[in-house]
Specification:
Layout (H helix, E strand, L loop, with lengths): L2 H6 L2 E3 L5 E3 L4 E3 L6 E8 L5 E6 L5 E5 L4 E5 L5 E6 L14 E6 L3 H4 L1 E7 L4 E9 L2 E2 L3 E7 L10 E4 L2 E5 L18 E5 L15 E4 L4 E6 L5 E5 L5 E7 L24 E4 L5 E7 L2 E6 L4 E6 L8 E4 L7 E6 L5 E5 L16 E6 L1
């Protein structure tokens, strides 16, 4: 039977030829498929969240609740670089702290590290110098992003010399449709925190109607993709466009003619809860927390939108998936984040994945 026939019949094949159910519109894949574990790069971290790569291929990795920043070598091993003061609410199952990281596109000249952090009063974007002695004092780039125990967003990404930041609705859904609010948005700013030319509403808002976006990335065509937590129905993978309204709280998942932009892919919330997202070889790879796996979604071609699940229940909660300079993926486990989980003895880990 051809693969297309198998899918229509409700079956799929693993790389080893084993037939497994293609449930709920997705295929379960064996580990021998195109996504493989290459190496455990670091162990014994506590809720690693943000990852950003340095010019030499090593990475800076932040721990959400402690605020510690580690340097992880491209072939493994880590050392402590410094610590950022943050407000963690882990004891309340909170989601704030040291979240997204991004180095300046001109890091080799200016040594700026950008971080999305939670304080007691707000979420904010700051930047600090990375020196041989550690981290310099944080300088505020953008403050006043609403904060709450949950829905703090937090991912950062540079594209075209400008900085993008994802924010949550801070558990106040009405803010997502308010284009003047910083909550429930994807924001676009200059590296020093000004509103750049070309923003659609004359402020920091690039897109709106988001509940809680914890993953943003760009593909090789310059298209922006974002992963978003739903409430009780659907999680989403969205293509982000300038000025787009993604529907929250009016809609969750696809709403057809309802006015919001529909996601490319959606999941029931109990099988996903997506955080980090990266694009490699025409597929978006998403770390799933509640789903305890990595999801792959085809972005183009006749199988556009097709979903495949990898490593289900093997590593526990998966937080971040990011593309490394060598084309591999780095993913982080999140088994110490305060949510129900059973950490392995050396959790949390950073694991390199090879995409074939």
């Amino acid at each position: 039977m051809e693969r297309r026939t198998l899918l229509k019949a409700g079956l799929a094949t693993t790389a080893g030829g084993l037939l497994v159910p293609a449930l709920d519109g997705f295929t379960e894949s064996a580990e021998a498929g195109p996504l493989r574990v290459a190496k455990v790069l670091a162990r014994d971290l506590r809720t690693p969240w943000g990852i950003t790569f340095l010019p030499d291929g090593s990475a800076l990795v932040g721990e959400r609740d402690s605020g510690r920043v580690h340097r992880v070598g491209k072939n493994g091993g880590r050392r402590l670089v410094g610590r950022v003061a943050v407000h963690s609410q882990r004891a309340s199952f909170g989601e704030g702290g040291l979240l997204g990281l991004a180095v300046s596109p001109t890091f080799s000249r200016d040594s700026w590290l950008y971080a999305y952090i939670s304080t007691r009063s707000d979420n904010r974007v700051v930047r600090m110098r990375v020196t041989s002695g550690g981290l310099g004092q944080p300088h505020v780039v953008l403050a006043g992003i609403p904060t709450n125990v949950h829905h703090n967003g937090g991912r950062l990404a540079f594209h075209g010399g400008l900085l993008f930041a994802s924010t949550g609705d801070a558990e106040n859904a009405s803010l997502a449709q308010n284009r003047g609010s910083l909550a429930g948005k994807i924001l676009r700013m200059t590296p020093d925190g000004r509103v750049p030319e070309g923003n659609p509403f004359g402020n920091f808002t690039w897109s709106y109607g988001h509940r809680n976006v914890e993953g943003i990335t760009f593909d090789g065509k310059g298209r922006m993709w974002a992963s978003e937590f739903g409430e009780k129905k659907y999680d989403e993978l969205n293509r982000i466009v300038k000025g787009g309204n993604y529907g929250w709280p009016r809609s969750e998942g696809r709403d057809g003619p309802g006015g919001g932009r529909d996601p490319l892919a959606q999941w029931a919330t109990d099988v996903c809860s997506p955080s980090g997202v990266a694009v490699v070889k025409g597929r978006a790879f998403l770390g799933a927390l509640r789903g305890r796996c990595v999801w792959a979604v085809r972005l183009n071609g006749p199988q556009k939108g097709r979903k495949v699940r990898y490593f289900h229940n093997r590593f526990g909660r998966i937080r971040t998936v990011v593309k490394a300079p060598d084309g591999t993926l780095w993913m982080t486990t999140s088994n110490h984040d305060g949510r129900p989980s059973t950490p392995h003895g050396d959790d949390d880990r950073i694991i390199r994945l090879r995409v074939t």
